[in-house]
Every structure is written in C-alpha cells, then in structure tokens.
Amino acid sequence: MPNIRTYAGPFSRTEKPVRRPTLASIAGIALLLASCAAAPASSPSYPQAAPEGLGARRSVEATHASRHMVAAANPHAVKAGLSILQAGGSAIDATIAAQMVLNVVEPQSSGIGGGGFLLHLASGGQIEAFDGRETAPASARPDMHLRPDGTKKKFFEAAIGGNAVGVPGLLSMLHMAHARHGRLPWAALFQPAITLAEDGFPVSPRLHRLIAADKHLKTFPDTAAFFYGPDGSALPIGATLRNPPLARTLSAIAQGGPDAFYKGPIATDIAATIRNAPVNPGGMTIADMAAYRTIVRDPICAPYRVWVVCGMGAPSSGGIATLQILGLLEGFDLAGIGPGSAEAVHLIAEASRLAFADRALYVADPDFTQVPQSGLIDPTYISGRAKLISLTASMGEAKPGDPQGRTSRANGLDRGEGGNSTTHISIVDSDGNVVSMTTSIENAFGSRMMVRGFLLNNQLTDFAFSPTQEGKTVANAAAPGKRPRSSMAPTIVRDAAGKPVLAIGSPGGSRIIAYVVKTLIGVLDWELDMQTAVSLPNFANRNGATEIEEGSPLERLTLDLEALGHQVRAVPMTSGLHGIRLHDGGLEGGADPRREGEARGE
Active-site positions? Predict the structure, then answer.
C-alpha cells in the first residue's frame, strides 16, 4: 500500500501549505465521477432523481453566478428563493420562501411540523447560529421509549404516532431570523408556497418511490388519503398533488405570524392530534406549543489550515464532530493523497471514529447537561487524539477521550437511522449575506400524522432509548423542554480575512457529518469545484464498520481497507448536499446528483 504522507516541518495550524492535486489525482477524480454518472435528466425543470441506494445518479452541471444564488433540494424551492432575491429580498427572505415551498413539494423531509438549525453570516462579518430544534413536551420522561417490561422499543414502535412528536421549532426560528435580517414583508415570502399548494405540482419520481416504499403511511386515514389513490396505490409520477389545507395554514401564518401556529386553532389541532393518536398517543398540550422559544447560540468555529470553519454547536453534534474530524486530519497531507484512494478513506474514517466516540458520550442539550464543547475542539486535545491514528492499521472501535470540562455521564449510542427526512438550503444574496440551513422532521414522513396539510415530526426518537447506563442517567435522555441531540451540520467556511468561502450542509441522519466532511475536504484540500466535491462518492465511519456508498467506485477499495483492519460495508448513502462556493467575486453552486435539487443564480 502506498505510504500515507504527513506534512514535514513545524507548521502551525494556520501555516500549513495548501497543495494542489497532482495530475494523477485529477485524472482519478475524472474517472471516479465518470463511473458514477447516469444519463442526463430528461426534464431539466424537474430532474429524475436517483433510485434510493442504488448508486445511480443523474447528471448535474456546475452552476456559476455573479450576484446571488440558491442551492436547495427541489427546483420549485430554488425558483421561489431566486424570485425573492430578484425582488430585492435578503438571503433570509429567500430561505423562508424556499423552505415553505419544500414543505409543499418535499413533505417527507421537512416543514412547519419540524425544526432545524440555521447559520447566518452577515456581509459585515457577524455570524449567528439559530437553534430551532424541537423541544420535548412537559409530559416527556427518560423512559418514554421503553416498553412496560423495561426493554427498548424498536425504532418504528416509537416513531409512529403522537408520543414521538416534539414541539416544532421551524417557524419560530425563521421568524426570529426574519426579524433580524429580513427585508421583504413576512407575508410575501409565503405566497409562492401558497400558490403551489393551491394549484398543485407534479409528483416527482423520488416522492413517488418514497410513498410506495413506506410501510407506515397508511396507519392514519388522513395521511393515507393524501398520499395514495382510492385503490390504495401510491400517487403516480406526474400526478398533480394539491394541498388546499396547507395553503390555508400557510395563509394564516403569513397574516398572523408564528402566533397563528403556536397559539389558537392550529396549536389546538396539533395537540389534539397528538393526544388522541390511535397509535402511541402523546401528552403535548397547547401550553407546550405556546412555550416554544428559538435560541440564538454562538456558532462553534475552529481553524482548518488557512480557513475558519463554523458550524452549529450543541444540541447538534454536527458542528462539533465536523470540526473534530478536520482538526484530527490537519497533520496529514490530504491534498497529496487525493480523493478516491484507500489512504484517504482510511484516514478520514479513523478520525471519524474518534469524533463519534466523543459524540456518543458528551453531546446533548447544553441547557440540560454540561457539554465540553470547547474542550472537544481544543487544539491540545485534538493533537493528543490524533496520535491514535495509525497510518497502517485501523484502531477498531475508538474510546471517548478526556476533554477539559467533561462530565462523568454516559450517553446512549445512535441508531444512525434516517436520511430521507431532512433537507438543506444554501443561499447567498447580492449583498454577500450567507445562509446555511438544515431542517428536518426526522424519519421520512415523520410520525406519519398530518394536521392541516402538514406532517408532524418524530424527533423525540432522537433521545436515547436507554435512559441509563451503568446506573447513571445518560446525557441525551428525554426530559420536559429538552432538545434531542441532532447530527445536522449546516456549515459556513471563511478565509483568514473573514470573507465567506463556502456554505454547505446535507440530510442523512448521523451520516450527515461524513457527507459534509467529505465535501469540505473536496473543496479545501483537493481544490475541486463545488459540484465535483458534492458528487464524490460517499463513505462514513460512525465508530463501527467503514461504510462505502453502494454501487460506487469506492467498492473497489474493499480489499485494501480490509487489509488495514476495517470492517467494510457497502450501504445506500443518499446524501442531499447543497452548497455554494464563493471565490473571486463569483459564486459556484453544487447540487447532489443523488436527489432532485439544483443550484441556480444570476
């Protein structure tokens, strides 16, 4: 196996050179992507999405612009966001319009029945992190996902029905961001989604496949009636799907603001639906709805070579783990190694093992437990952990470290479920304001319960199912008002002068972290354009098997990785990366070929 190179010489964290890929690396990248590519989409206005988990993908061209850009998970959402920018709206305005349209056309992934995290970088340099994560109702208990005999429920035993639903945070978060950074009237931002819900849109291939494959959508009559025909078959590709109840809901929120959602008839209907659910009824009340508050937190930032990378801190593990992985890799010559190699996969996987070991033990809602956030990304701590990475052999299952500020609590491990039920939006406006926002309803179609045209989340299943370990309450155990741990990782990168370089994020459950890290390294270390970096095959290690994207060229690395001690599994890895790179006064967009989104700008 070729020697894995490290940087020679006494470089500081901000002095390490940036090396361009070799000609061999460039040729390898071309072959890697060519072998992944599928035939071009037949309809550029609504592209054919790749089959889930089969490695096939549509052809996506790199996008360039000079003024502003939107990268999102559906062409309808991109069109809405771009129309707001054209009308003089801010990046936040365009984000709201795009997200509301996603609620209409991508109901399985996100919407007003869920929550999310938003990073906003103002043109003046201030960066804010908006926490719109769902909260547990007052009825939540640490053992809420246990059976009467004390054993853990299986995931779908807990995920379907009212007991899985957290108080939605998306609308509160977007309203607070709009109050700070919006330009156009709140009501105007809802009009594209209202019109689309009233007029309808053609069911996309991706939405059809997800409906047809879901085993739980028929649990509740209202949901079944919306997604299936009278004969019980999934809505066919191209069928017009209208949602008048959602149009009325969005109209009420447009006129009344978030109070129309968190108080009054909509809140009453949400609470009643949850409490009266025929499956897993929950205890949410209108008081729980009215009590929801968005939190503006400090972003978590750390240097990586000549850049500063910023993400979302706890209760999301996404930003912390991303920064840890990058820090652990900083001493290795990733640019010289290049993508698509066993060396690169090995090093990134080993760094990921260490980050996920810490994630499982330490990260939870910081308002309920002490999270050693600064300690986990401290350069001295990271340097010590990096010494555990061998160039020639996998460490196997990693143990958590001992960062400054740690607690002695244990924590439950993640299932790693999900991937279809989250979405990401990246937007840059003409003034240089940048948004990176990831939103979710957790599992695909959430709790499967609908209220007034929108699906309710099942985010409370992101709490630990086993509330104790070794007699101690785990950090991510459920509690009233608590926010469950997340892996969402909206990310913004700046250069040494503070100028934005990159906005990126992805859906994908706990694999989100791997998808974002891969793309960051692709742009920053391998100097790939945005689209090429997004399109690279996926791989991940969540402190277990090294997972490689099923059907991708990385499957050829199996024997080399096994020789290093990795247990290798080829699995579906349907990321939904949407990013924008800023350089030389221009914008470069990338949309994941595994889904149906796009990047467009002017």
Answer: 422
